[in-house]
Design goal:
five-stranded mixed sheet, alpha+beta, 4 helices, 10 strands, 214 residues, 30% strand
Length: 214
Amino acid sequence: MSGTWITDLTHFLDRDGELSIYVMSRRIASQLTSIVAAVTESPSATLQETPIPCRRRPQRKACPGRIHAGFECGTPNILWSCPVCYDHGLIHHWQGTRWDKGGRAGLTQINKVTYRHGFTDDIEDEAGLQTIVLDGPTVTPDVIRAIHDNQLLGCSGVYGDPTVGDPLQIDQLEIEHAGGSSKITVYNRAIMLFATRDEFYVQMHRVCSRINTR
């Protein structure tokens, strides 16, 4: 019978990022890391056949299937399945491991990134905000990976309370892509990070930090 594997890849790794000697099944771990390498080498938003053989042995005979794998639509998760024995699963927290080859589904869809940030006494006055524009070749794979891995394309909206800060802190990230534009406005990010450590604001902080270093 096939199974469903929901895997945090870091659970298989030691402090040095290598496969832990304490992993109960190195064959499973080896298959999962090979899937991550294959998908991030040639990223696809649909499941594509890879050269990776299925590890299962139904009725003590090697399954002849080849693993199909790709990114889960709208998320950084990697889906995989065997079309013969139907073994399948999902891999998360694979980013930054040594099997991450850097590719992401939809990399070419990010056309322009505009980041505005700073402090102001007037919510209607954006003239004093520092603006960073990344366009064309300046939209580097590093920035795109940060946007993809933190799932920001689906987070359009206004976050935070503009009445609690004096002066008001504004962070605004606008991402132009093949499907349109995603615009995220965050008020008083530093206050929210200090008060709540909400995961969204942590992710937003990571991406903005990447852009600020450009």
